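Form 7-S
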Amino acid sequence: MRTAEQATAEYAKQFPQNYYCKLPTGETVSRAGFGTYRTAIGIEVHEQALRKAVLSGINLIDTASCYAFGDSEILIGSVLEDLANENKISADEIVLITKAGYIEGGILEDAKRGEHECKRIPGIVKLDDNAWHSIHPFFLAEQLNQSLDRLNLLHINIFLLHNPESYFVWAQASGVSATDMREEFYRRIRRAFEYCEKAVASAKISWYGISSNTFGYPSAHLQFCSLEECLNIAKDVAGNDHHFRFVQLPFNLLETGAAYNKNQENDSLSVFEYAQKSGISVLANRPLNALSGDSAIVRLTTQATAQNSPSSVEIDALINNVANIEQEFFNTISPQLQLLPDIAIRFRILLSAGQATRRLVNAISSFSGWQPVLAEQLEPRAIEALNILQQIDNYDLQQWLPRYTDSLRFMWGTIGSRYAVDISVPAVIRRASAESFGEKYTELPFTQIALQSVMATEGVTSALVGARTTEYVDDVLTALAAGHEPLGREHWTNYFSSATRQFGVNQQ
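Output:
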């Protein structure tokens, strides 16, 4: 039987044009991974994108138990099983990452009911009415088992604590002192690491780590998560044979802190430098979706230009299309289902995304305004309806569902892209990257500047790209086939200075 080290090395040999690296843990992985934040089972374009990625040499896949409320994991499990049955891949050639920590969707509803029945999940942090969080061993064990079921696996390569700094947000809002807050935060990390070592011993996972948005923050920041402190905890829990070997963090042309800020070993090293020194693999997320200083999302792609921003006419047409598909359900499908009156009324409320989107979108002027409306008002109602309808055995309904889901997601994604455009960003970044990274970056398409600069950075193991379409996969493959001159802290220091002079980037 092949080891993971042998299997992934043999997989990589099939794609000599691609850029790979060998992890400190032995596996060979593509320098860009397939991110599944907004992917789900039942969306044909998502399945096509994942299939193409795996068959083209991308063998690192990142997901989480909360992505699409578990449907992203189901998509991955289904596609990988199909490819294995077709003898196109072997499961041991793929390195899978999943994460746990967020309590959302149906899990949140169960948790709320549990509180009324005195069955409270331990260690809960209540971020808002739609999202709670916990990294207590009880919850991690439950989530890992569910992830394994959805992925159709007995074992996952890498298991990450998902944004444990969520505790800081709650603690600050609750008036906990800075000293007590940090002490409790690392106590929770220790308890979670103790569970993860047990999960390794039971062969459910091979390695574990943390996905945190605050590894790159200045060390004085109240929400800073110290890699050095986490590594010391792992060593204290399991000695030098610990299995804490991975971190995931945001890094892109606007969020440069992981390369720029010296925040480890008494502020003498950046998190990238410390990770390299310590044998920790760093997975960079959000290479194409940056958070600017005001928390608005900026799309770092060639397509994110003013002339390609969707017009009001285009958006209105997409809304009309969704509304028409919803009316088709009530005209032709609902009568076949013989729904009880109260259920029929409920569906009238839930399947009204077209009208609801039209009513809300005209009052929104920014992505930071659109995002909570989508996440808190529009998506939950649609997801509730779709989860019920997917269980009903009716031919016309099952033909209707994917068409509705695709149209719905495309409408919302297009509306989101309307707000994710900043006409000044591409020009500023192009000049700064050309000045700081070399002549190669002068002529690259904007998407390639964003991808290749992250992949070339010393200390970055792999860039995780949300590749929901085959076109995005093509962008990733282009970056994987490009030669990369290493970019160190000095390159990013120059870049930060250049970009700041012109525009101002977010160094957190």
